[in-house]
Design goal:
The protein is of the alpha+beta class and 127 residues long. It has one domain: Thiol Ester Dehydrase, Chain A, CATH 3.10.129. Helix content is 16%, strand content 39%. The protein is built from one helix and five strands, in the order E-H-E-E-E-E. It has one helix spanning 30-49, and strands at 13-16, 53-63, 72-82, 86-96, 104-115. Strands 1-3-4-5-2 form a five-stranded antiparallel sheet, covered by helices on one side. It is elongated, with a radius of gyration of 15 Å. The termini are far apart.
Amino acid sequence: MRDALPPASEPVIRVTAMPADANAYGDIFGGWLVGQMDLAAGSVAARHSRGRAVTIAIDKMQFLLPVKIGDEVSVYGTILRVGRTSMAVAVEAWRRHRDVDEAVKVTEAVFTFVAVDDSGRPRIVAA
């Protein structure tokens, strides 16, 4: 079931989908959208872990609606779980057509990150 309203928090990322991000039909590539979501989730994970964190998995991704050229895409992220070295981040992407106020959810997923040190080895995350 689609949510009626975006999360109450501010988006981690807000960007306009451009022609270079689209296929010949004007639909934005799913990979571009996943990239934006990964950037947002990575920012949330890095802030929480106070350092570098790397993506190790993406779960439960489902594309609900297309994004078109010119749509404003807002990506929200929140920490779901924190383990010893890992974090699960819930991410939602919402689109708003340029000429309307209403936003609709276009996809969501859970991104899992591991906090790493300067050598790329897992490090402890404070709960």
